[in-house]
Amino acid sequence: WALWSQRFRGMCGIMFVIDVADTSRLPEARDTLHSSVLPHIHAAQIPVLIVLNDKSQSPSVTTPQVLSLLSLDASTTDKISIYRAKAADPPDMAFRILIKHSIDNLVELLDKAKPPRRG
Predict the structure, then answer these.
(1) Nearest to 97 by CA among 17, 4, 39
(2) Who's near 10: CB < 8 A, 6+ residues apart?
(3) Region 8-29: what's the mean pLDDT?
(4) What pLDDT is attached to residue 91?
């Protein structure tokens, strides 16, 4: 936890990239995600973009299958965006999505911090 808590300070967002073409490593990705990232991001209010990197022409596993293998469901993904990178996507597409998600999160936090209006 100490290593991760130090790394989270000052972050605007986290991009967690998973090579879904190598399904043998999905359990390792799941364990890292659930032990080192997810327990800490909610308290720190840090948005996360999980990039399912699969540059193959015919994906071997679908996005719902990957989410299931990663033990992610609606209850764990309220502050998490999922993006499946395709071979034809621009290289910076995932960064654009993370930036938008970070801005949306910041606006939400600012709205919550506003004092209530008096009528």
Answers:
(1) 17
(2) none
(3) 83
(4) 74
DSSP 11: -
Where is 80: in which H helix or E strand? strand 80-85
Are the beta carbons of 77 and 45 closer than 8 angstroms? no
Length of the chain: 119
User: Once rounded to an integer, what is the mean pLDDT over residues 69-73?
Assistant: 85
Number of other residues whose CB lies within 10 A of the CB of residue 94: 20
What number of helices (H) and strands (E) belong to the chain?
5, 3
pTM: 0.71
Residue 19 to residue 115: CA distance in whole angstroms: 44
* Short-list 53, 38, 29, CA closest to 8: 38
Residue 112 DSSP SS3:
helix
